[in-house]
Amino acid sequence: MNPLTVFAIALGGALGAVSRWRLDILVRRAVTALAARHRLHGHRDSDDPVRRPAALPLLGIGIVNILGSLLLGAAIRALDPGAELARALIVTGFLGGFTTFSTAVMDCWNLWRAGRRGPALALLLGVWALSLAALSLGAALAGALVRP
């Protein structure tokens, strides 16, 4: 394997993993802030300690994987098939490090074990279905923009 390709994958993977981590934190903070604001306006359902944590994995890692799938569809369609280094950096490296279905599956498993069957199934089926739709949308958008 070409050392430059290995470096591109490693660099992209590192940047993707850090981006995933930051986006997940930002989403979790936004959800927490919205829940706090919701409580300030007298809504009691956001105080339910069982309901609130279930939204966090659904939103944080779910958004990461759906966005990553959208970007993957666009990248696969937009990048020239011969651009091996760009594909290694962006597709295998960055988007491989950015998306993390293993974390979504772990969140699903934890919800299931906690008796939260509905949120667990919503995470499992929803993230996968929305990620597939996002990938298709990304490919279609890139196809329309790159190859008229």
From TrEMBL:
> Does Cell wall biogenesis/degradation appear among the keywords?
no
Q: Which residues form a coiled coil?
A: none
Transmembrane ranges?
54-76, 88-112, 118-146
Keywords on record: Cell membrane, Ion channel, Ion transport, Membrane, Metal-binding, Sodium, Transmembrane, Transmembrane helix, Transport
Q: What is its main location?
A: membrane
Membrane topology reported for the UniProt record: Multi-pass membrane protein
| Tagged with keyword Transmembrane | yes
**Pfam families membership:** CRCB
What this protein catalyses is: fluoride(in) = fluoride(out)
Q: Which InterPro entries does the protein's record reference? A: FluC
Give an example GO biological process. cellular detoxification of fluoride
| Binding annotation for Na(+) | 96, 99
Q: Which family does it belong to?
A: Belongs to the fluoride channel Fluc/FEX (TC 1.A.43) family.
Which HAMAP family does the record match to this protein? FluC
- What name does this protein carry? Fluoride-specific ion channel FluC
Q: Its gene?
A: fluC
